[in-house]
Amino acid sequence: MSAALSITSLSKAFAGVRAIDDLSFEVPEGKAVALIGPNGAGKTTVFNLVSGVYPVDQGVILVKGVDVTNMPSRKRISTGVARSFQNIRLMAHLSVLENLLVGQHVRNASLWSLLTPYRLAPNHRWKREALKALAESGLDGYAYDTVGALPYGVRKRIDLVRATLAGASVLMLDEPAAGLNPTETNALREDLRALKSRGLTLLVVEHDMQFVESVCENVVVLNFGQKIAEGPLSVVRQDRLVREAYLGAEEET
Amino acid sequence: MVSQQIVNGLMLGSIYMLVAVAFTLAIGVLNFLNFSIPGLFMLGGMAAYGGVKMGLHWSLAFAGALALAGLVSLAVERLAYRPMRGGDPEVPLVSSLGFLVLLENLMLIRFGSDQQAFPALLADTNLRVGGLVIGMAQLASLALSIALVIWLSWFLSATNTGRRVRTVAESGETAVLLGIDMSSLVPRLFIGSALLAATAGILFAVNYQQVSPFMGEGVGFKGVAAMIVGGMGSIWGAVLGGLLIGMVEVLSISLIGSNVVNITVYGLLLLILILRPQGLMGRPPSREKL
Amino acid sequence: MSGYLTGVLVTLSFNVIAAYAVYLPMAAGQLNLGIAGFMAIGAYLGAFLTNELSWPIWAAVPVSAGLAGTVGLLIGLPVLRTHGIYLAMATFALGQVISATFLNLEVVGGAAGYPVAAYAPPAVVFAAAAGVFLFMVLLSTTRFALYLTAVKSDATVADLLGISVRGIQVAAFTLGAVVAGFGGALYGHHYSFIEAQHFNVMLSVFPVLYVLFGGTQTVLGPLVGALFFTLAPEWLRASAEWRYALFAMFIILFMAARPQGLVTTSMFRLLGRRKAQAPA
């Protein structure tokens, strides 16, 4: 099986309104796919269905061949799929390091790990691992800061580091570049390329088309919860439906 | 005799009902579990007692007690609620408990810890209806409680201020967007809630002819129970809850004994919280959005 | 040690234990207003075991704590489906129901109270409080403590990161009940008499005050809060009549000025950073 994430005939309605309508697509192992479309097209809903925030009405979701469609949300991360959040959901009162330690949970879920007094060890491997991940993104200077006090761009990138520390092989990133300045966007691009070179699979919701083009091989275009096009961005751009639904709307605003 | 007990339960319930409405205004609109309300209830009763004791006419004593409760409630808003908006919800709860302890101890210093006899205002004029004995004071306070609640319900649905209050209850953010002046509305809510609690305290004093610095605790906590049983934030829920709790209390005393009151009343509350947390007349909480 | 000082230190020890019973669930975002109920379970069962079954204190106290925890677990499972104020009220109701149940339980004296024959001297009480404190400090260095805060601050994300939110919540609630039961069992054996009326609302509420005053962000907060609340009224003893009124005024003004409590993580974090930046 070559698809890291496979979605088949997925449907979800809220109060009778179809948010996702018979959606099918795949993200091949080790590739990056962008999920694009106008606001309200259902991109974040796809993430919420895959991560289990909402129950699925119809369809099947496979992560690396494992059916997660009806799996409790808490268990899904252990199948290898992790996500970031559009409106950064870090624990504001905890330090950066502590947030990352929380992110490691799924790989350290035994009762023994839960009750190990790791803070008594000045250099515990959990801390070393988190600090190393921070250093790889050049963020190690923030390790002991309280998250709530940090600038937006930094928090955004820490959210990404936390998702990677779950040891996931499929990462879903919800608007990772939104609100970042050009320097931060470049740093993020490097982060994502590094993840891909380590063999991770990415599914990205993003509005910045330049960013999408530089990171993702393929795009899936959503409109009103339906897939209207799929393929390399350069090809999809020429699609009439896409121009009408999405790029057209973009030019107007 | 059970029908007499039902009448007594209704009377007690009407006191709980007013306290429950006072709580529900604070919690339904401001999301603040205001534990100074039992203190304001006690203040109503004790200050009225103090006034009458000083030789004031009862109407002046009552008015003075209400005014005092309103003023204290403004201090609660200023010191317990306002500094902590948006913080952890437990913190204003603690400060408001601080007010309860403060009020109790101030009254303790002034009047001592003993029960005081509240003079009978309406000399023993009892109404006898088919074997039932109904005190005039009881009847008057039941009528007054119900009139107050009906008026409040009308006020919230029919006046501009009332509509503003309901907007704030729906969503504080929307209210600010609509340009509702929270800094004048919130203190008025605190005064309203205090007046209800103090009125209940005065009615309690008149009905049961006794006051003490700690009279607020038992009644106040049952008022909270009544509010939750009925459904937080719903005025008619508070009415239903208040009457129900009053009834359960009086019936369990007369059928089983006074030591079981806390088991039946709070057992009912616990049961409701487990089976139907939103209360008998409340709406279920909405789902969080990611 | 003078009798007065011993008396104050014993009170302090019980207050510290009560504060940590409240602290654990509160760190996970649960306001437990019924801690007195669990203390009552510990106190009555402990006294029953030593009085009627002639158990030694050292066996009766832990077993009573365990039973308080079991009750906490069984009741916590349905009650912890509620959140926020609903949960606070459910624990409040629970505390009332439990102490009223003992009021009606004739086996343990009912309304007349229950004398306890076996005696735990002050030294045992001090050691127990120190033990609870050390246990809490040790617990605060584990992932479990970290997850308490994580669950409190964002339960949805904690769940998506694979943490069993419900498991953590139930564990915190249960452990809080164990600590409360432990304190209660010891209380009965030290003061040689228990009555249901002692386990009232205020007994539940005061430890909450200690914890919020000391601050919930660090493991030291409850200790500092309990210290302050025990010792300050002693200093105010000169004005015996006014001391609680003055004290209440102080709490109100303090919480208005510093809602996060006395001891916060940022204090420690500053220290931690300095340590981290010092040349290795």
List key phrases describing it:
heterotrimer, B: 290 residues, mainly alpha, ABC transporter involved in vitamin B12 uptake, BtuC, two-stranded antiparallel ribbon, two-stranded antiparallel sheet, 11 helices, 73% helix, 4% strand, globular, C: 280 residues, 12 helices, 1% strand
Q: Can you give the mean pLDDT of chain C?
A: 89
| Helix content, binned percent of chain C | over 70%
Structural class of chain C: mainly alpha
| Backbone structural class of chain B | mainly alpha
Q: In angstroms, what is the radius of gyration of chain B?
A: 19 Å
CATH topology (fold) name of chain B: ABC transporter involved in vitamin B12 uptake, BtuC
Q: How many strands, which pairing sense, and closed or not: the largest β-sheet of chain C?
A: 2 strands, antiparallel
Multimeric organization: heterotrimer
Q: What are the segments of chain B in which pLDDT stays under 50 over at least 5 consecutive residues?
A: none
Principal-axis shape of chain C: globular
Summary of the model, kept short:
Chain A has 253 residues and is α/β, with parallel strands linked by helices.
Walk me through the structure.
- The complex is a heterotrimer of chains A (253), B (290) and C (280).
- Chain A is α/β, with parallel strands linked by helices and 253 residues long.
- Chain A has ten helices and ten strands.
- In chain A, the strands form two sheets. A six-stranded mixed beta sheet of chain A has the order 6-7-8-3-9-10, sandwiched between helices. In chain A, strands 2-1-4-5 form a four-stranded antiparallel beta sheet, with helices on one face.
- In chain A, helix 3 runs parallel beside helix 6.
- By secondary structure, chain B is mainly alpha-helical.
- Chain B contains eleven helices and four strands; from the N terminus they run ααααβββααααβααα.
- In chain B, the strands form two sheets. In chain B, strands 1-4 form a two-stranded antiparallel sheet. A two-stranded antiparallel sheet of chain B has the order 2-3.
- The radius of gyration of chain B is 19 Å and the shape is globular.
- By secondary structure, chain C is mainly α.
- Chain C has one domain.
- Chain C has a two-stranded antiparallel sheet with strand order 1-2.
- In chain C, helix 1 packs antiparallel against helix 10.
- The longest helix of chain C is centred in the middle third of the chain and has 27 residues.
